[in-house]
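Q: I'm building a small set of examples for a reading group on sequence design. Run inverse folding on the following structure and report the sequence directly after it, with nothing in between.
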């Protein structure tokens, strides 16, 4: 297995040990496992790396070994697309995405936070979701959660409550209004 594949596998196992809820790790890892449950290849495009279906929510964990500068080019769109599509497909169930990397790009962190206030359209159907939650974490922060036996449900609830933003007032036709006003004059 490649290093990125092993990284996804290790993060999945780490989250399994962090979690207080039982879930199927083999069904949650979107990578190919051999007969001994060891990784062969990483998650293919189109789906998140790790998708955990809890009773009351869904958690997607996206992992990367890209450095902070490469995240802007290689992670902004795919992570946002995966998070949006999963949020739409699991609606009305609560969905949160964790993005785990060694170092985080400040613009990536802030862009994903800003996205939470904007309705996002799925790429695999014609539906919108009013709230896409992507919470970036470093490897060392994830390790602290594991080392200190932090209750993952408390962490996820804290993340969830921080996203109490209203996207209902967002005007999806804002661009058309500007063009119509300018062109019609």
């Amino acid at each position: 297995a490649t290093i990125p594949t092993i990284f996804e596998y290790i993060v999945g196992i780490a989250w399994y040990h962090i979690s207080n809820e039982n879930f199927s790790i083999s069904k949650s890892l979107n990578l190919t496992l051999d007969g001994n449950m060891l990784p062969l290849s990483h998650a293919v495009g189109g789906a998140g790396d790790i998708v955990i279906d809890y009773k009351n929510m869904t958690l997607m964990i996206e992992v990367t070994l890209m450095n902070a500068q490469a995240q802007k080019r290689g992670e902004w769109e795919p992570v946002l697309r995966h998070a949006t599509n999963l949020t739409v497909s699991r609606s009305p169930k609560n969905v949160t995405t964790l993005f785990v990397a060694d170092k985080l790009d400040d613009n990536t962190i802030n862009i994903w936070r800003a996205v939470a206030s904007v309705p996002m359209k799925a790429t695999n159907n014609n539906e919108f979701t009013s709230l896409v939650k992507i919470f970036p974490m470093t490897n060392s922060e994830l390790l602290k959660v594991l080392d200190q036996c932090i209750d993952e449900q408390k962490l996820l609830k804290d993340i969830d409550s921080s996203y109490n933003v209203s996207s209902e007032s967002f005007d999806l036709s804002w661009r058309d209004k500007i063009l119509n006003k300018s062109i019609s004059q």
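The chain has a mean pLDDT of 90.
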